[in-house]
């Protein structure tokens, strides 16, 4: 049986690597994105994976987008909540918009995507919800009160929902990547990036494909006994 997976923020970075890895593992895959049409078109041309544009911050748009994906590919078995943004600022300079935008995408977006899919997964007695949180949701990070709060919220959401999904064959897990070489991290000034690498015991940034392999495992039948857990993949930078 070929299962269907939907990856939010699946057109670039970690999400793109996840979408490709799931396709390589024989899933039917849809990749959602927010607005960068050029990157999405290039991704589809390179991989053959269809992309769908909507914002995870908009509940109605999520419902409509999910309906479209299910009409095209069939019921969604695996949801990867990967879409995320940063709006960094030290707290004394953080604006209400910076706080709100990060919460709406990184935390509300996870609710907005999971909620419309939940009943279908319960009825079919199978589901995999995998949310990409962050090391900074585990340990907190200077100038990221918004991001750290949202990503910590994703972990709480995962632990709570795992309990509700367990009897229905739905597993709910989170992955906390450390620093991964994507646009988000490469946008950080080089000096700051060098100081980040100096704090990673393995001495390098992670690769998006390394996170993607965790997702493929958590999606599989082999991972059916793993729920409510967090895979920490950060090169030894922080132990929970
Ligand atoms: P990128 O900035 O490289 O890519 C982000 C993706 O998310 C893009 O596809 C973007 O679409 C999409 N996106 C952003 N906002 C929305 C939205 N409102 N609705 C739908 N899609 C949206 O990010 P990364 O690959 O670096 O990060 C992926 C996830 O991993 C994020 O949740 C991030 O917080 C987390 N993470 C990343 C780490 C890292 O080191 N890179 C470390 C730990 C966690 P578009 O192209 O249209 O803008």
UniProtKB/TrEMBL annotation:
Its EC number is 1.1.1.36. It comes from the Bacteria. GO terms for molecular function: acetoacetyl-CoA reductase activity. Residues 3-178 form the Ketoreductase domain. One of its GO terms (biological process) is poly-hydroxybutyrate biosynthetic process. Keywords: Oxidoreductase. The keyword Oxidoreductase applies. One of its GO terms (cellular component) is cytoplasm. It is an enzyme of class 1 (oxidoreductase). SUPFAM superfamilies: NAD(P)-binding Rossmann-fold domains (SSF51735). SMART domains: PKS_KR (SM00822). Belongs to the short-chain dehydrogenases/reductases (SDR) family. PANTHER family: 3-OXOACYL-(ACYL-CARRIER-PROTEIN) REDUCTASE, 3-OXOACYL-[ACYL-CARRIER-PROTEIN] REDUCTASE FABG. This is Acetoacetyl-CoA reductase. It comes from Mesorhizobium zhangyense. The gene is phbB.
